[in-house]
Amino acid sequence: MDSSDFIGFLKSRSSVREYDDEPLTQSDIDYILSCASAAPSAGNLEAWDVVVVTEEETRSALAEAAFSQEHVERAPVIFVVCSNYVRSMSRYGERGILYGLEDATIACTCMMLGAHARNLHSCWTGAFDDDEVRGILSLPQHIRPVSLLAVGKGHSPAQHTDRMGIGEHVHRETW
Ligand SMILES: Cc1cc2nc3c(=O)[nH]c(=O)nc-3n(C[C@H](O)[C@H](O)[C@H](O)COP(=O)(O)O)c2cc1C
């Protein structure tokens, strides 16, 4: 892949919230998980974990916990990407809270792009009630759910979302 292929790949991804009934294959799921495993992490501690949810009843409960976002129920698989604070804080103390969130976020980004590479569609879902998700999945206290990554086979939209101009983000030398 050259650099123009890479930016083209990034720009061709969109959040998709409608999916066909087709389930993901085990090979798709394994591929997406291997993308998480390839992510960098602070001190290589991999302070992330993921709960793979395919059961309709659990997806439905997660959709409720996500303030009734229907795509969470409709997607055949929800990867609940979590931060594992014990792993990161055991070495980094308070700083480990931030690293744990970063590790989970990077893992989720790799999974989202892995789904795209596999011609699947996804929607990163960050709006949910943490405690409800904890209860539904029996998450231990040191595990924080960071994202519900909904993945399925859908259709890319004709138009991609706009972005701010790069100049609005970038500061040269100092702020
Ligand atoms: C941290 C984060 C939280 C998000 N939460 C939600 C969400 O709760 N529901 C949703 O439908 N989309 C959610 N999204 C998807 C964004 O709405 C989407 O990425 C953004 O509008 C840009 O569109 P694109 O992904 O198609 O490029 C989230 C994305 C991120 C990165």
Would you kindly provide a written description of the structure presented here, covering whatever features stand out?
This protein has 175 residues and is of the alpha+beta class. The protein has one domain: NADH Oxidase (3-Layer(aba) Sandwich). It has helices at 3-11, 26-37, 56-65, 70-74, 85-92, 95-117, 130-137, and strands at 48-53, 77-84, 121-125, 143-152. Strands 1-2-4-3 form a four-stranded antiparallel sheet, with helices on both faces. Flavin mononucleotide binds next to strand 3. The site of flavin mononucleotide has 10 residues, from strand 3.
Q: Summed up, what is this model?
A:
The protein is of the alpha+beta class and 175 residues long. The protein has a single domain, classed as NADH Oxidase (3-Layer(aba) Sandwich), CATH 3.40.109.10. The chain is built from 7 helices and 4 strands; from the N terminus they run H-H-E-H-H-E-H-H-E-H-E.
**What proportion strand?**
15-25%
Coarse structural class: alpha+beta
Number of strands: 4
| CATH homologous superfamily placement | NADH Oxidase
